[in-house]
Amino acid sequence: MKRMMMVMIMMIKRRRRRMRVMRLRMISMMIRMRMIRTRMMRMRMMRMKMMRRMKNRMRMKMMVMKIRMKTMHTRMKTRMKTRVRMKMRMKM
């Protein structure tokens, strides 16, 4: 009888301990999940920022390229004009 009681008590204690361990594990898992989620969010934010920056840079580059192209065209036109003039002169 006494032994049975002891065994019961032991079982209950063990179960309690197991419960506690399980709870701790659950809590740790939750914390880890939250950490991972926050990290993911942060990563996404960083990526978004990077993408925005890249887009802005690309836009700037495009603008610069357009301006350059325009200047190049005007230069080419002037050069062509001078060349045509030179040719005309040569013919003269």
Annotate the secondary structure layout.
Blueprint (H helix, E strand, L loop, with lengths): L1 H90 L1
Distinctive features:
92 residues, mainly alpha
Report on this model:
0% of the residues are buried. The mean pLDDT is 86. The chain has one helix and no strands. By secondary structure, it is mainly α. It is rod-shaped and about 135 Å long.
Order of helices and strands: H
Largest sheet: number of strands, sense, barrel closure: none
The residue fraction in helices comes out at over 70%
Q: Tell how many strands the DSSP assignment holds.
A: 0
In brief, what are we looking at here?
This protein is mainly α and 92 residues long.
